[in-house]
Design a protein that fits this description.
There is one protein chain. This protein has a single domain, classed as Rossmann fold (3-Layer(aba) Sandwich). It contains six helices and nine strands, in the order ααβαβαββββαβαββ. It is globular and about 45 Å long. The two termini are about 30 Å apart. About 0% of the residues have low confidence. One of its GO terms (cellular component) is cytoplasm. It is an enzyme of class 2 (transferase). Belongs to the class I-like SAM-binding methyltransferase superfamily. TPMT family.
């Protein structure tokens, strides 16, 4: 995963990147009633402009990304000064209220995520092959405190074995997250010309892991 992901960024094969804020974020985030000032975790963040939107909405952002190319491209989009430091094995770049942690999301531990109070996943889950998605859902639950909310944008398409982006149907969303989150479907779009249909979910962290 790590080698192929870096290669995608180095070769510019990032068709998953949007040149604008994802419409589902602006539409559904306010309904979660997450207080301004709440720090938002964005796993596998790439150079997503959604992090700018969250920052402008009053949220400190902690984005985790494996590819340094993605982080540098995000930082280059703004003239705001950047500070850089290392913590817990991650190379961290801070620009305004956005912190970008360069490294493996699975190496981010609760000590580093102590201030996290919400999360946003637009292209994380669907970037992972089936064998890794269960690990991702469990690790996310470990980092999110009870009662915290998040927004998940998923994708289903006919070619279930192909990706990324991989197809993650509604049934799998429930299988992955229901044990540790209250899962609510907010929106399900009709398939596009390629048979791809996005779905938007609200996730609220249940009590502590057993």
């Amino acid at each position: 995963m790590s080698t192929s992901w870096r290669q995608r960024w180095q070769e510019g094969r990032i068709g998953f990147h949007l040149q604008h804020t994802h419409p589902a974020l602006a539409k559904h985030w306010p309904g979660l009633a997450i207080a301004p000032g709440t720090k938002v975790l964005v796993p596998l963040c790439g150079k997503s402009l959604d992090m700018r939107w969250l920052s402008e909405a009053g949220h400190p952002v902690l984005g985790v990304e494996l590819a340094p190319e993605a982080i540098e491209q995000f930082l280059a989009q703004s003239k705001v000064p950047v500070s850089r430091y290392t913590q817990a094995g991650f190379d961290i770049s801070r620009q305004g209220s956005v912190e970008l942690w360069c490294g493996d999301f699975f190496h981010l531990h609760i000590q580093e995520a102590a201030e996290i109070g919400a999360f946003y996943d637009r292209a994380s889950l669907i970037a992972l092959p089936p064998a890794t998605r269960e690990r991702y859902a469990f690790h996310l639950a470990q980092l999110i405190p009870p009662g915290a909310k998040g927004l998940l944008v998923s994708l289903a398409h006919p070619d279930h074995g192909a990706g990324p982006p991989y197809s993650v149907p509604d049934t799998e969303i429930h299988q992955l997250f229901t044990a540790n989150f209250r899962v609510t479907l907010l929106e399900e779009n009709s398939p596009d010309e390629r048979g791809r249909a996005e779905s938007v979910w609200s996730l609220t962290r249940r009590g502590p892991l057993a």
